[in-house]
């Protein structure tokens, strides 16, 4: 089920989790203001290279918004994004209206049944979406990242992706001063981020009364 959100971009409803993928106030706005900007993607782009861990890929708005804004800041930037997604319903994404310049990447994704992942690659962008349980997939990632987009469904519906153990594993994949961004303001989420050794602080207030959450690797 599609929903046109406040900024004109469309989102979808998850029957499995009984939640929309984005805030009704603005789906792309949420991606830009809660993830891309707080994780300093524009500043990182000016240095020439960005690596992003994106959990979960969902409709792809966070990843593609990051690509859009990074390339606008530095057309020559190299962008590497590793996404995890439990169940990518690719056909439902291809006709979504969202205004993202590079969203046609979605139509160019290729599936590799051996690695159970989708991928897209050109001279500046490398995007891989691994399908499966993120709590297990993170344990075999061999590199560290400049930024983390933590965008799982809510802690009440998707609790395994908000635990202390999970965030501890994520923290191990973050470079020094890397920032994790998430929409959740839940006390337990913030406690688990802190227990994972991250510095926790308020993110922007977008579409809700409460701020989002940021966590920096110190």
Residue share in β-strands? 25-35%
| Rg from Cα | 16 Å
CATH architecture: 3-Layer(aba) Sandwich
Total domain units: 1
The beta-strand count equals 12
Under CATH, the topology can be stated as Rossmann fold
- In the sheet with the most strands, the strands line up as 6-7-8-5-4-9-10-12-11
Task: Provide the succession of SSEs.
Answer: EEEHHEHEHHEEEHEHEHEE
Number of helices: 8
Summarize the structure.
With 218 residues, this protein is of the alpha/beta class.
Describe the structure.
It is a single chain. The chain has helices at 27-36, 41-45, 61-73, 90-93, 105-108, 134-137, 164-171, 187-195, and strands at residues 2-4, 10-14, 19-20, 49-55, 78-85, 110-112, 117-121, 125-131, 145-150, 174-182, 198-202, 213-217. With 218 residues, the chain is α/β, with parallel strands linked by helices. It has a single domain, classed as Rossmann fold (3-Layer(aba) Sandwich). The strands form two sheets. Strands 6-7-8-5-4-9-10-12-11 form a nine-stranded mixed beta sheet, with helices on both faces. Helix 3 links the parallel strand 4 and strand 5 (78-85). It is globular. The mean pLDDT is 96.
